[in-house]
Write a structure and sequence with these properties.
Helix content: 25-40%
Shape: globular
Number of helices: 8
Strand content: 15-25%
Radius of gyration: 19 Å
Strand order of the largest sheet: 7-6-9-10-1-11
Structural class: alpha+beta
Number of strands: 12
Largest sheet: 6 strands, antiparallel
Oligomer: single chain
Length: 301
């Protein structure tokens, strides 16, 4: 695989930055993850960090060197991250739980598959056009997708799901989408898309490489957000089709030995998460998913 990648996180007008992002890869697979800890609840940065560490730890277990079923993996790892946040809150005796959004993508072979919960987004831009983007789990986007109540004002920041909530997370899995030479895939927090229009994002991603486009977009979003603007976090990659041409930019995984795992996701103060990730939590996640599938099938029957 070969791709160019750039990531950045900047604090806006908030007391602290609760966003977290990172990526990791093997010889034949890559994982890109972004989480935005939610204000109004305690320790949003902990929820975001736990989400990243859990998904990364499971990816390291699974990607040998590829993930067998990306859709299944992303679903199970999101639910495992949710359970880890709930476990953390329970062990701390917290009256309110830390909460976070999550968007994660797996790129392997020549395709991308992704999952999201909340309003952190993923964009795919191809040849100057928006190929697709995620739809937020917010009352605003839910209203705009329906034919009723469109004239009723709705705060874009109000979400109806997230990780760490007492109710089971709502999420969407998309893909696989076959990638073409030069495709841009971008994950971002609402600090970016809340201050820039989709048209501006597509234009900036299309006109220059991600290492130049992303910092410029982040700076513009911070300026637009002003004194009380949100934190802005972005991770973006430009895909290169194998054997299309030789580029001096980016990451080539061809020289990585089998069994080697590279990561920018730092454990930090929560460095016990990977080792402490219990199989019971993973099994609970998978059982929950299977039960939901069974109930859905029963309803259709």
């Amino acid at each position: 695989m070969k791709f160019s990648v750039f990531q950045i996180s900047r604090r806006g007008g908030r007391a602290k930055n609760e966003d977290r992002m990172g990526y990791c890869y093997t010889r034949e697979s890559g994982l890109f993850v972004l989480a935005d800890g939610m204000g109004g609840h305690p320790e949003g940065e902990v929820a975001a960090q736990l989400a990243l560490q859990t998904v990364s730890a499971l990816y390291q277990r699974e990607a040998k060197p590829t993930v067998r079923d990306p859709r299944e993996f992303l679903t199970a790892s999101l639910m495992a991250a949710h359970h880890q946040i709930m476990r953390y809150a329970g062990e701390k005796g917290m009256l309110d739980t830390p909460r976070t959004t999550l968007v994660a993508a797996i790129v392997q072979g020549n395709s991308a598959t992704w999952i999201h919960c909340g309003d952190s987004r993923l964009y795919v831009v191809r040849e100057g056009e928006l190929l697709t983007r995620t739809r937020d789990h917010s009352y605003l986007e839910h209203r705009e997708a329906s034919s009723v109540l469109r004239l009723t004002p709705v705060n874009r920041n109000i979400l109806y799901t997230c990780l760490g909530s007492p109710t089971r997370p709502v999420f969407d899995v998309s893909g696989p989408v076959t990638l073409q030479q030069g495709d841009r895939v971008m994950l971002c927090s609402d600090g970016l898309w809340g201050s820039l229009k989709d048209e501006e994002i597509v234009h900036e991603l299309s006109r220059q490489n991600v290492a130049d486009a992303v910092p410029e977009m982040v700076e513009q979003a911070l300026r637009n957000g002003g004194e009380y603007g949100d934190n802005v976090t972005v991770i973006a990659l430009e895909w290169e089709t194998p054997d299309a041409f030789e580029s001096t930019r980016g990451i080539s995984t061809d020289s990585i030995n089998d069994g080697v795992f590279a990561s920018t996701i730092q454990a930090g103060v929560l460095d016990t998460t990977a080792d402490d990730l219990d199989d019971a939590a993973i099994e609970r996640s998978i059982a929950e998913i299977n039960e939901a599938i069974r109930r859905s099938a029963a309803k259709k029957a």
